[in-house]
Amino acid sequence: MPAPRPGPHPAPLPGPNDLGAWWMPFTANRAFRRKPRLVSGAEGMHYITPDGRHVLDGIAGLWCCNAGHAREPIVRAIRAQAGELDYAPPFQFGHPAAFALAGRLAALAPADLDRVFLCNSGSEAVDTALKIALAYWQARGEGRRTRLIGRERGYHGVGFGGISVGGIAANRRAFGPGLPGTDHLPHTYDRETQAFTVGEPDWGAHLADDLERIVALHDASTIAAVIVEPMAGSTGVLPPPKGYLERLRAICDRHGLLLIFDEVITGFGRLGHAFAAERYGVVPDMITFAKAVNSGTVPLGGVIVREPVHAALMQGPEHMVELFHGYTYSGHPLACAAALATLDLYRDEDLFARARALEPAFGQAVMSLRGLPGILDIRTVGLAAAIDLAGRPDAPGLRAFTIMDRAFEAGLVVRAAGDTLALTPPLIVREDQIGEMVDRLEPVIRANP
Ligand SMILES: Cc1ncc(COP(=O)(O)O)c(C=O)c1O
Protein backbone atom coordinates (compact mmCIF):
# COMPACT_ATOMS: atom_id res chain seq x y z
CA MET A 1 0.00 0.00 0.00
CA PRO A 2 1.51 3.40 -0.90
CA ALA A 3 2.29 5.71 2.01
CA PRO A 4 -0.49 8.24 2.55
CA ARG A 5 0.26 11.70 1.23
CA PRO A 6 0.08 14.45 3.80
CA GLY A 7 -3.15 16.37 3.33
CA PRO A 8 -3.28 20.14 2.95
CA HIS A 9 -3.82 21.88 6.23
CA PRO A 10 -6.06 23.65 6.93
CA ALA A 11 -8.51 21.75 4.69
CA PRO A 12 -9.69 23.71 1.68
CA LEU A 13 -13.10 25.28 2.00
CA PRO A 14 -15.85 23.21 0.41
CA GLY A 15 -16.79 24.44 -3.02
CA PRO A 16 -17.07 23.26 -6.57
CA ASN A 17 -15.23 19.97 -6.88
CA ASP A 18 -14.96 16.92 -9.09
CA LEU A 19 -17.33 14.91 -6.82
CA GLY A 20 -14.63 12.34 -6.25
CA ALA A 21 -14.29 12.49 -2.48
CA TRP A 22 -17.69 11.16 -1.47
CA TRP A 23 -17.76 7.40 -2.03
CA MET A 24 -21.48 7.17 -2.70
CA PRO A 25 -23.56 4.26 -1.37
CA PHE A 26 -25.20 1.77 -3.76
CA THR A 27 -24.17 4.06 -6.61
CA ALA A 28 -22.30 3.62 -9.86
CA ASN A 29 -19.71 6.12 -8.61
CA ARG A 30 -17.68 6.50 -11.79
CA ALA A 31 -20.75 6.98 -13.98
CA PHE A 32 -22.21 9.46 -11.51
CA ARG A 33 -19.05 11.50 -11.47
CA ARG A 34 -19.10 11.67 -15.23
CA LYS A 35 -22.80 12.62 -15.35
CA PRO A 36 -24.14 13.62 -11.94
CA ARG A 37 -27.77 13.76 -10.96
CA LEU A 38 -27.71 16.46 -8.30
CA VAL A 39 -30.58 17.84 -6.29
CA SER A 40 -30.19 20.79 -3.98
CA GLY A 41 -33.71 21.50 -2.83
CA ALA A 42 -37.06 19.85 -2.32
CA GLU A 43 -40.64 20.90 -1.81
CA GLY A 44 -43.82 18.88 -1.63
CA MET A 45 -43.79 16.39 -4.50
CA HIS A 46 -40.65 17.77 -6.14
CA TYR A 47 -36.90 17.86 -6.02
CA ILE A 48 -35.20 21.00 -7.26
CA THR A 49 -31.91 20.77 -9.13
CA PRO A 50 -29.08 23.29 -8.66
CA ASP A 51 -30.11 24.87 -11.97
CA GLY A 52 -33.67 25.30 -10.73
CA ARG A 53 -35.50 22.46 -12.49
CA HIS A 54 -38.44 20.92 -10.60
CA VAL A 55 -38.28 17.14 -10.82
CA LEU A 56 -41.26 15.02 -9.74
CA ASP A 57 -40.27 12.67 -6.93
CA GLY A 58 -41.62 9.30 -8.02
CA ILE A 59 -39.96 7.39 -5.19
CA ALA A 60 -40.51 9.45 -2.03
CA GLY A 61 -36.79 10.02 -1.69
CA LEU A 62 -35.97 6.37 -1.14
CA TRP A 63 -39.34 5.07 -0.01
CA CYS A 64 -39.17 7.40 2.98
CA CYS A 65 -40.55 10.91 2.38
CA ASN A 66 -44.17 9.74 2.67
CA ALA A 67 -45.46 13.14 3.80
CA GLY A 68 -43.71 14.88 0.90
CA HIS A 69 -40.74 17.24 1.17
CA ALA A 70 -40.02 20.21 3.40
CA ARG A 71 -43.35 19.99 5.17
CA GLU A 72 -43.60 23.04 7.40
CA PRO A 73 -44.79 21.34 10.64
CA ILE A 74 -41.91 18.86 10.47
CA VAL A 75 -39.35 21.55 9.65
CA ARG A 76 -40.65 23.64 12.53
CA ALA A 77 -40.46 20.75 14.97
CA ILE A 78 -36.87 19.94 14.02
CA ARG A 79 -35.82 23.59 14.33
CA ALA A 80 -37.50 23.97 17.71
CA GLN A 81 -36.00 20.76 19.06
CA ALA A 82 -32.50 21.72 17.93
CA GLY A 83 -32.79 24.93 19.90
CA GLU A 84 -34.25 23.29 22.98
CA LEU A 85 -32.38 19.99 23.43
CA ASP A 86 -29.83 19.14 20.79
CA TYR A 87 -28.76 15.80 22.17
CA ALA A 88 -29.45 13.66 25.21
CA PRO A 89 -27.59 10.51 26.20
CA PRO A 90 -29.91 7.55 25.70
CA PHE A 91 -27.96 5.28 28.04
CA GLN A 92 -29.29 5.73 31.61
CA PHE A 93 -30.87 9.11 30.74
CA GLY A 94 -33.98 10.00 28.80
CA HIS A 95 -35.83 12.89 27.22
CA PRO A 96 -39.56 13.43 26.74
CA ALA A 97 -39.77 13.20 22.95
CA ALA A 98 -38.38 9.66 22.84
CA PHE A 99 -40.95 8.42 25.36
CA ALA A 100 -43.74 10.29 23.62
CA LEU A 101 -42.74 8.80 20.27
CA ALA A 102 -42.49 5.26 21.65
CA GLY A 103 -45.99 5.63 23.05
CA ARG A 104 -47.34 6.88 19.72
CA LEU A 105 -45.73 4.01 17.83
CA ALA A 106 -46.99 1.42 20.30
CA ALA A 107 -50.48 2.82 19.86
CA LEU A 108 -50.18 2.60 16.06
CA ALA A 109 -48.92 -0.98 16.08
CA PRO A 110 -51.36 -3.86 16.38
CA ALA A 111 -52.13 -6.03 19.40
CA ASP A 112 -49.55 -6.08 22.20
CA LEU A 113 -46.68 -4.74 20.10
CA ASP A 114 -46.12 -2.22 22.86
CA ARG A 115 -42.40 -1.82 23.47
CA VAL A 116 -40.21 0.25 21.19
CA PHE A 117 -36.43 0.13 20.83
CA LEU A 118 -35.02 3.07 18.88
CA CYS A 119 -32.01 3.20 16.55
CA ASN A 120 -31.05 5.15 13.44
CA SER A 121 -31.74 3.13 10.32
CA GLY A 122 -33.41 0.09 8.85
CA SER A 123 -30.19 -1.89 8.96
CA GLU A 124 -29.78 -1.19 12.64
CA ALA A 125 -33.43 -2.01 13.25
CA VAL A 126 -32.98 -5.40 11.63
CA ASP A 127 -29.82 -6.24 13.54
CA THR A 128 -31.52 -5.06 16.74
CA ALA A 129 -34.53 -7.32 16.13
CA LEU A 130 -32.32 -10.33 15.40
CA LYS A 131 -30.32 -9.69 18.58
CA ILE A 132 -33.49 -9.29 20.65
CA ALA A 133 -34.66 -12.65 19.30
CA LEU A 134 -31.42 -14.35 20.33
CA ALA A 135 -31.39 -12.67 23.74
CA TYR A 136 -35.04 -13.61 24.27
CA TRP A 137 -34.39 -17.30 23.83
CA GLN A 138 -31.35 -17.16 26.01
CA ALA A 139 -33.36 -15.45 28.76
CA ARG A 140 -36.00 -18.15 28.38
CA GLY A 141 -33.39 -20.86 28.94
CA GLU A 142 -33.53 -21.98 25.30
CA GLY A 143 -30.19 -20.60 24.21
CA ARG A 144 -29.82 -23.32 21.56
CA ARG A 145 -32.29 -21.39 19.45
CA THR A 146 -29.82 -19.39 17.40
CA ARG A 147 -30.80 -20.02 13.79
CA LEU A 148 -32.27 -17.10 11.87
CA ILE A 149 -34.42 -17.73 8.84
CA GLY A 150 -34.78 -15.14 6.09
CA ARG A 151 -36.01 -15.36 2.53
CA GLU A 152 -34.56 -15.32 -0.95
CA ARG A 153 -34.86 -11.89 -2.55
CA GLY A 154 -35.27 -10.38 0.93
CA TYR A 155 -33.59 -7.08 1.73
CA HIS A 156 -32.87 -6.36 5.35
CA GLY A 157 -30.24 -3.68 5.06
CA VAL A 158 -26.51 -3.98 5.00
CA GLY A 159 -25.39 -5.01 8.49
CA PHE A 160 -23.89 -8.47 8.81
CA GLY A 161 -27.14 -9.72 10.35
CA GLY A 162 -29.23 -8.15 7.62
CA ILE A 163 -27.18 -9.48 4.72
CA SER A 164 -27.06 -12.93 6.31
CA VAL A 165 -30.84 -13.28 6.43
CA GLY A 166 -31.21 -11.23 3.25
CA GLY A 167 -31.47 -12.93 -0.07
CA ILE A 168 -29.77 -10.70 -2.62
CA ALA A 169 -26.61 -12.27 -4.03
CA ALA A 170 -24.97 -8.99 -4.99
CA ASN A 171 -25.25 -7.74 -1.41
CA ARG A 172 -23.70 -10.91 0.02
CA ARG A 173 -21.06 -12.24 -2.30
CA ALA A 174 -18.21 -9.85 -1.50
CA PHE A 175 -18.59 -10.01 2.25
CA GLY A 176 -17.74 -13.49 3.41
CA PRO A 177 -19.92 -16.17 4.93
CA GLY A 178 -22.05 -13.90 7.16
CA LEU A 179 -23.71 -15.12 10.34
CA PRO A 180 -23.52 -18.86 10.87
CA GLY A 181 -26.77 -20.79 11.09
CA THR A 182 -28.98 -18.87 8.73
CA ASP A 183 -31.34 -20.40 6.20
CA HIS A 184 -33.78 -19.00 3.65
CA LEU A 185 -37.35 -19.52 2.59
CA PRO A 186 -37.97 -19.46 -1.16
CA HIS A 187 -39.06 -16.13 -2.58
CA THR A 188 -42.68 -15.81 -3.61
CA TYR A 189 -42.33 -14.58 -7.18
CA ASP A 190 -43.31 -16.63 -10.20
CA ARG A 191 -43.71 -14.72 -13.43
CA GLU A 192 -45.56 -17.55 -15.14
CA THR A 193 -48.45 -17.38 -12.71
CA GLN A 194 -48.27 -13.82 -11.41
CA ALA A 195 -47.29 -11.50 -14.27
CA PHE A 196 -49.20 -8.19 -14.43
CA THR A 197 -51.05 -8.74 -11.15
CA VAL A 198 -52.52 -5.74 -9.39
CA GLY A 199 -52.27 -6.33 -5.65
CA GLU A 200 -51.59 -9.63 -3.93
CA PRO A 201 -51.25 -12.60 -6.31
CA ASP A 202 -53.57 -15.60 -5.95
CA TRP A 203 -50.72 -18.05 -6.47
CA GLY A 204 -48.02 -18.80 -3.94
CA ALA A 205 -49.44 -19.16 -0.40
CA HIS A 206 -48.12 -22.73 -0.31
CA LEU A 207 -44.54 -21.40 -0.50
CA ALA A 208 -44.84 -20.60 3.23
CA ASP A 209 -44.98 -24.34 3.85
CA ASP A 210 -41.30 -24.51 3.01
CA LEU A 211 -40.77 -23.32 6.58
CA GLU A 212 -41.94 -26.79 7.67
CA ARG A 213 -39.13 -28.29 5.59
CA ILE A 214 -36.61 -25.95 7.21
CA VAL A 215 -37.94 -26.81 10.68
CA ALA A 216 -37.74 -30.52 9.89
CA LEU A 217 -34.15 -30.10 8.69
CA HIS A 218 -32.80 -28.06 11.61
CA ASP A 219 -35.34 -28.83 14.35
CA ALA A 220 -37.43 -26.06 15.88
CA SER A 221 -35.33 -26.16 19.04
CA THR A 222 -32.44 -24.55 17.11
CA ILE A 223 -34.44 -21.78 15.39
CA ALA A 224 -34.81 -18.36 17.00
CA ALA A 225 -36.76 -16.34 14.44
CA VAL A 226 -38.08 -15.92 10.94
CA ILE A 227 -37.77 -12.52 9.30
CA VAL A 228 -39.58 -11.41 6.15
CA GLU A 229 -40.68 -8.20 4.54
CA PRO A 230 -44.49 -8.47 4.31
CA MET A 231 -44.01 -7.05 0.82
CA ALA A 232 -40.48 -7.44 -0.52
CA GLY A 233 -39.67 -3.92 -1.65
CA SER A 234 -36.09 -3.60 -2.77
CA THR A 235 -36.10 -6.64 -5.02
CA GLY A 236 -38.95 -5.23 -7.00
CA VAL A 237 -42.24 -4.92 -5.11
CA LEU A 238 -43.26 -8.52 -4.48
CA PRO A 239 -46.61 -8.42 -2.68
CA PRO A 240 -47.28 -11.46 -0.53
CA PRO A 241 -49.45 -14.08 -2.18
CA LYS A 242 -52.94 -14.19 -0.68
CA GLY A 243 -52.84 -16.21 2.55
CA TYR A 244 -49.04 -16.52 2.60
CA LEU A 245 -48.35 -14.44 5.72
CA GLU A 246 -51.16 -16.12 7.65
CA ARG A 247 -49.61 -19.47 6.84
CA LEU A 248 -46.18 -18.30 7.92
CA ARG A 249 -47.64 -17.08 11.22
CA ALA A 250 -49.40 -20.42 11.79
CA ILE A 251 -46.21 -22.41 11.20
CA CYS A 252 -44.21 -20.12 13.50
CA ASP A 253 -46.88 -20.62 16.18
CA ARG A 254 -46.83 -24.38 15.71
CA HIS A 255 -43.10 -24.49 16.39
CA GLY A 256 -42.76 -21.55 18.77
CA LEU A 257 -40.65 -19.43 16.39
CA LEU A 258 -40.60 -15.67 16.62
CA LEU A 259 -41.88 -13.93 13.50
CA ILE A 260 -40.35 -10.58 12.56
CA PHE A 261 -41.93 -8.34 9.93
CA ASP A 262 -39.38 -6.00 8.42
CA GLU A 263 -41.63 -3.01 7.75
CA VAL A 264 -38.88 -0.53 6.93
CA ILE A 265 -40.62 0.08 3.60
CA THR A 266 -44.18 -1.02 4.32
CA GLY A 267 -44.54 0.98 7.54
CA PHE A 268 -46.34 4.32 7.65
CA GLY A 269 -48.78 4.13 4.83
CA ARG A 270 -47.01 2.65 1.83
CA LEU A 271 -49.66 -0.09 1.71
CA GLY A 272 -52.49 2.12 2.95
CA HIS A 273 -52.13 1.28 6.63
CA ALA A 274 -49.84 2.19 9.50
CA PHE A 275 -48.23 -1.22 9.06
CA ALA A 276 -48.60 -4.07 6.59
CA ALA A 277 -49.40 -6.24 9.61
CA GLU A 278 -52.69 -4.34 9.75
CA ARG A 279 -53.40 -4.69 6.03
CA TYR A 280 -52.89 -8.43 6.18
CA GLY A 281 -54.37 -9.02 9.62
CA VAL A 282 -51.27 -10.89 10.79
CA VAL A 283 -49.55 -9.99 14.05
CA PRO A 284 -45.79 -10.60 14.12
CA ASP A 285 -43.71 -10.72 17.30
CA MET A 286 -41.60 -7.77 16.21
CA ILE A 287 -41.91 -5.02 13.60
CA THR A 288 -38.84 -3.18 12.34
CA PHE A 289 -39.34 0.33 11.01
CA ALA A 290 -37.32 3.32 9.77
CA LYS A 291 -37.61 5.58 6.70
CA ALA A 292 -41.12 7.08 6.72
CA VAL A 293 -41.41 7.20 10.52
CA ASN A 294 -40.32 10.81 10.20
CA SER A 295 -40.78 11.13 6.48
CA GLY A 296 -37.06 10.60 5.93
CA THR A 297 -36.06 13.87 7.54
CA VAL A 298 -33.63 12.70 10.27
CA PRO A 299 -32.12 9.19 10.52
CA LEU A 300 -34.38 7.09 12.75
CA GLY A 301 -35.32 3.44 12.97
CA GLY A 302 -36.52 1.00 15.55
CA VAL A 303 -38.15 -2.23 16.58
CA ILE A 304 -41.63 -2.61 18.04
CA VAL A 305 -41.73 -5.67 20.27
CA ARG A 306 -44.57 -7.72 21.72
CA GLU A 307 -44.96 -7.37 25.43
CA PRO A 308 -44.07 -10.99 26.39
CA VAL A 309 -40.78 -10.80 24.45
CA HIS A 310 -39.86 -7.61 26.28
CA ALA A 311 -41.02 -9.00 29.64
CA ALA A 312 -38.79 -12.04 29.27
CA LEU A 313 -35.77 -9.77 29.08
CA MET A 314 -36.63 -7.62 32.12
CA GLN A 315 -34.68 -9.82 34.49
CA GLY A 316 -31.83 -9.56 36.97
CA PRO A 317 -31.08 -6.93 39.61
CA GLU A 318 -32.95 -3.70 38.94
CA HIS A 319 -29.80 -1.61 38.72
CA MET A 320 -28.40 -3.79 35.95
CA VAL A 321 -28.72 -3.16 32.20
CA GLU A 322 -31.16 -5.76 30.84
CA LEU A 323 -30.12 -5.72 27.17
CA PHE A 324 -26.54 -4.94 26.26
CA HIS A 325 -27.41 -3.19 23.04
CA GLY A 326 -28.00 0.38 21.91
CA TYR A 327 -26.63 3.28 19.89
CA THR A 328 -25.26 6.69 20.80
CA TYR A 329 -28.03 8.18 18.69
CA SER A 330 -30.88 5.86 19.80
CA GLY A 331 -33.88 8.14 20.16
CA HIS A 332 -32.04 11.27 19.03
CA PRO A 333 -34.11 14.32 20.03
CA LEU A 334 -34.21 15.77 16.50
CA ALA A 335 -35.28 12.46 14.98
CA CYS A 336 -37.99 11.98 17.62
CA ALA A 337 -39.31 15.52 17.28
CA ALA A 338 -39.47 15.05 13.51
CA ALA A 339 -41.29 11.75 13.94
CA LEU A 340 -43.87 13.20 16.33
CA ALA A 341 -44.62 16.01 13.87
CA THR A 342 -44.75 13.51 11.00
CA LEU A 343 -47.17 11.20 12.81
CA ASP A 344 -49.36 14.25 13.48
CA LEU A 345 -49.31 15.06 9.78
CA TYR A 346 -50.16 11.49 8.80
CA ARG A 347 -53.09 11.62 11.20
CA ASP A 348 -54.30 15.14 10.40
CA GLU A 349 -54.14 14.65 6.62
CA ASP A 350 -55.30 11.02 6.88
CA LEU A 351 -52.48 10.05 4.56
CA PHE A 352 -52.68 6.28 5.08
CA ALA A 353 -56.33 6.33 4.02
CA ARG A 354 -55.34 8.59 1.13
CA ALA A 355 -52.84 5.96 -0.05
CA ARG A 356 -55.57 3.33 0.21
CA ALA A 357 -57.95 5.46 -1.81
CA LEU A 358 -55.34 6.18 -4.50
CA GLU A 359 -54.24 2.55 -4.82
CA PRO A 360 -56.61 1.57 -7.67
CA ALA A 361 -55.86 4.68 -9.76
CA PHE A 362 -52.13 4.28 -9.17
CA GLY A 363 -52.23 0.59 -10.10
CA GLN A 364 -54.22 1.30 -13.24
CA ALA A 365 -51.94 4.14 -14.31
CA VAL A 366 -48.72 2.17 -13.95
CA MET A 367 -50.29 -0.90 -15.53
CA SER A 368 -51.05 1.22 -18.62
CA LEU A 369 -47.34 0.92 -19.50
CA ARG A 370 -47.83 -2.79 -20.11
CA GLY A 371 -47.88 -2.53 -23.89
CA LEU A 372 -44.50 -0.82 -24.22
CA PRO A 373 -41.61 -2.71 -25.82
CA GLY A 374 -39.70 -5.06 -23.56
CA ILE A 375 -41.89 -4.97 -20.45
CA LEU A 376 -41.82 -8.38 -18.79
CA ASP A 377 -44.03 -7.67 -15.81
CA ILE A 378 -45.62 -4.89 -13.80
CA ARG A 379 -46.60 -5.33 -10.15
CA THR A 380 -48.44 -2.82 -8.00
CA VAL A 381 -49.67 -2.82 -4.42
CA GLY A 382 -50.55 0.16 -2.24
CA LEU A 383 -48.56 3.10 -3.58
CA ALA A 384 -45.70 0.89 -4.78
CA ALA A 385 -45.08 -0.40 -8.27
CA ALA A 386 -42.30 -2.22 -10.08
CA ILE A 387 -41.73 -2.62 -13.78
CA ASP A 388 -39.52 -5.50 -14.93
CA LEU A 389 -37.75 -4.66 -18.17
CA ALA A 390 -36.20 -7.01 -20.65
CA GLY A 391 -32.60 -5.97 -20.13
CA ARG A 392 -29.81 -5.95 -22.67
CA PRO A 393 -28.29 -9.43 -22.73
CA ASP A 394 -24.82 -7.93 -23.19
CA ALA A 395 -25.20 -5.43 -20.33
CA PRO A 396 -27.55 -6.42 -17.50
CA GLY A 397 -28.93 -3.42 -15.64
CA LEU A 398 -27.93 -0.91 -18.30
CA ARG A 399 -31.43 -0.42 -19.69
CA ALA A 400 -33.00 0.43 -16.33
CA PHE A 401 -29.99 2.58 -15.43
CA THR A 402 -30.31 4.53 -18.67
CA ILE A 403 -34.05 4.96 -18.20
CA MET A 404 -33.52 6.21 -14.64
CA ASP A 405 -30.95 8.69 -15.93
CA ARG A 406 -33.06 9.92 -18.85
CA ALA A 407 -36.21 10.11 -16.70
CA PHE A 408 -34.37 12.50 -14.40
CA GLU A 409 -33.64 14.69 -17.41
CA ALA A 410 -37.32 14.43 -18.33
CA GLY A 411 -38.39 15.59 -14.87
CA LEU A 412 -38.99 12.38 -12.92
CA VAL A 413 -37.07 10.56 -10.20
CA VAL A 414 -37.55 6.83 -10.63
CA ARG A 415 -35.55 4.04 -8.99
CA ALA A 416 -33.65 1.38 -10.92
CA ALA A 417 -32.43 -1.88 -9.41
CA GLY A 418 -31.11 -4.42 -11.85
CA ASP A 419 -33.48 -4.16 -14.80
CA THR A 420 -36.43 -3.28 -12.63
CA LEU A 421 -37.86 0.22 -12.18
CA ALA A 422 -39.73 1.18 -9.04
CA LEU A 423 -42.29 3.93 -8.50
CA THR A 424 -43.22 4.68 -4.88
CA PRO A 425 -44.40 8.29 -4.64
CA PRO A 426 -45.06 10.29 -1.48
CA LEU A 427 -48.55 9.66 -0.12
CA ILE A 428 -49.49 13.27 -0.87
CA VAL A 429 -49.29 12.56 -4.61
CA ARG A 430 -52.32 13.78 -6.57
CA GLU A 431 -54.01 11.72 -9.26
CA ASP A 432 -52.87 14.15 -11.96
CA GLN A 433 -49.31 13.79 -10.69
CA ILE A 434 -49.58 10.01 -10.95
CA GLY A 435 -50.59 10.61 -14.57
CA GLU A 436 -47.66 12.97 -14.98
CA MET A 437 -45.24 10.34 -13.66
CA VAL A 438 -46.48 7.78 -16.16
CA ASP A 439 -46.52 10.34 -18.99
CA ARG A 440 -42.91 11.27 -18.30
CA LEU A 441 -41.75 7.68 -18.00
CA GLU A 442 -43.50 6.31 -21.07
CA PRO A 443 -41.50 8.06 -23.79
CA VAL A 444 -38.26 7.36 -21.94
CA ILE A 445 -38.99 3.62 -21.80
CA ARG A 446 -40.02 3.72 -25.45
CA ALA A 447 -36.82 5.50 -26.45
CA ASN A 448 -34.64 2.98 -24.62
CA PRO A 449 -35.71 -0.47 -25.78
C1 LIG B 1 -37.08 -3.91 4.25
C2 LIG B 1 -35.85 -3.12 4.53
N1 LIG B 1 -35.13 -3.39 5.62
C3 LIG B 1 -34.02 -2.69 5.91
C4 LIG B 1 -33.59 -1.68 5.11
C5 LIG B 1 -32.34 -0.93 5.43
O1 LIG B 1 -32.62 0.35 5.82
P1 LIG B 1 -31.44 1.44 5.90
O2 LIG B 1 -31.00 1.71 4.50
O3 LIG B 1 -32.10 2.60 6.59
O4 LIG B 1 -30.36 0.84 6.73
C6 LIG B 1 -34.32 -1.36 3.96
C7 LIG B 1 -33.89 -0.26 3.07
O5 LIG B 1 -34.39 -0.06 2.01
C8 LIG B 1 -35.47 -2.10 3.66
O6 LIG B 1 -36.18 -1.86 2.56
Alpha-carbon distance between the two ends: 44 Å
Q: Mind summarizing the main beta sheet?
A: 7 strands, mixed
Number of DSSP helical runs: 16
- What top-tier CATH class of the largest domain fits best? Alpha Beta
In round numbers, the mean pLDDT is 96
Multimer state? single chain
Spatial order of strands in the largest sheet: 4-10-9-8-7-5-6
Radius of gyration: 22 Å
Determine the CATH topology of the largest domain: Aspartate Aminotransferase, domain 2
| CATH architectural grouping of the largest domain | 3-Layer(aba) Sandwich
- The unreliable regions are none
The residue fraction in helices comes out at 25-40%
Which structural category do the helix and sheet elements fall into? alpha/beta
Bound molecules: pyridoxal-5'-phosphate
The CATH homologous superfamily of the largest domain is named: Type I PLP-dependent aspartate aminotransferase-like (Major domain)
Tertiary shape: globular
Number of separate domains: 2
Question: What portion of residues belong to β-strands?
Answer: 15-25%
What's the β-strand tally? 15
Describe the structure.
The protein has 2 domains: 29-71 and 350-447, Aspartate Aminotransferase, domain 1; 74-348, Aspartate Aminotransferase, domain 2, CATH 3.40.640.10. The protein has helices at residues 29-34, 60-63, 72-84, 96-108, 122-139, 160-165, 169-172, 191-194, 210-218, 244-255, 276-280, 307-313, 333-348, 351-367, 398-409, 431-447; strands at residues 41-43, 46-48, 54-57, 113-119, 147-151, 182-185, 223-228, 258-262, 286-289, 301-306, 375-381, 384-389, 412-413, 415-417, 420-423. It has 449 residues and is α/β, with parallel strands linked by helices. The model has no long low-confidence stretch (mean pLDDT 96). Helices cover 36% and strands 15% of the residues. The protein has 16 helices and 15 strands. The chain has a 7-stranded mixed beta sheet with strand order 4-10-9-8-7-5-6, with helices on both faces. Strands 1-2-3-13 form a 4-stranded mixed beta sheet. The chain has a 4-stranded antiparallel beta sheet with strand order 11-12-15-14, covered by helices on one side. The protein binds pyridoxal-5'-phosphate. Residues 121-123, 126, 155-157, 229, 233-234, 262, 264-265, 290 line the site of pyridoxal-5'-phosphate.
